[in-house]
Amino acid sequence: MRLVDSLRELVDPDDPTCRDPEFIRSYALPFFRWIGARYFRAELEGEDNLPRTGPFIAVANHNGGPMLPDVWVMAAFWWASLGAERPAYAMVHDAALAIPGLRTFLVKIGGLRGSRQNAEKVLRAGAPVLVYPGGELDCLKSFWRRHTIDFHGRTGFVELAMQTGAPILPVVNVGGHEVYVTLWSSERLARWTGMARLTRVKTLPVNVGLPWGIWVSGFVPYLPLPAKFVYRVGEPIYLAHDPRRARDPHAVREAYARVTRVMQDMLDDLARRRRMPVLGLAA
Question: Where are the domains of the chain?
């Protein structure tokens, strides 16, 4: 009942002080740690690259909507490494924050409405922030592109790093896109059906998995396949702290290409070692 009561609390998705370390320790961390270790057999490489102090921008590829199991497992690693007490936040899509109980849960574990203002607020307070630049387009991409880093030219994280001086921490994972199979994902269909306008989710996927067999949209709850998750944290990437460069399109594009190239190399290495989907046996 305490958990249910906690999820009924009113929270402000733009207020970092709504993060609740006790809620994380009591509920989120034990469950996420268990499901990561037992169900997804998750592994983390490069933990030593996690900065122990100061702000940073963790930039990651995104998978498995709408249940987002890759996010929960990564959060467990994050809290285990940095501690639940250390303020740390993640930018969250409005579609998730529109669901009352889920909104409270996300905000209590450190979720904030995805906006430049909120990210700057966190970094200037000296805390790290996790961003998924590819958003729903990355999360809902087809199975055949699962090992591709594609942020669709969204450079906000680069501009943020240049404006604040916070380093970029590249994080990649394999396995998240194997909790079901996305046969096809269409931005055009999302526009034609009005889904993009109503939900701000810009693509409409066709998925195969449990328990429905086949379904359309990124909003249907599902039972994730027990895919093996492997995460890698790369070395921090330091860009020059120069707000003027953040307004230079050429400088921003160069930095964006540098970060995505590093992440693609990291992801390629993990993918080469993965012999089979879901089982994830190493080559």
Answer: 2-179+225-272
SS (H, E, C) 138-164: HHCCCHHHCCCCCCCCCCHHHHHHHHH
Cα–Cα distance between 86 and 152 in angstroms, integer?
31
Euclidean distance between CA atoms 21 and 30, whole angstroms: 13
Q: Is 249 helix (H, G, I), strand (E, B) or coil?
A: helix
Q: Could you give the angle at the alpha carbon of 45 between the alpha carbons of 153 and 180, nearest 5°?
A: 60
Q: What number does CATH give the domain 2-179+225-272?
A: 3.40.1130
Q: What is the pTM of this model?
A: 0.94
Per-residue pLDDT tens over the stretch 2-56: 777 777 888 999 999 999 999 999 999 999 999 999 999 999 999 999 998 999 9
* Pairing mode of beta strands 204-209, 213-216: antiparallel
Kind and range of the H or E run holding 58:
strand 57-60
Q: How far does the chain reach from its first CA to its final CA, in angstroms?
A: 46
Choose among 175, 184, 156, 151: nearest CA to 230.
175
Q: Which residue has the tokens 């921490």?
A: 169
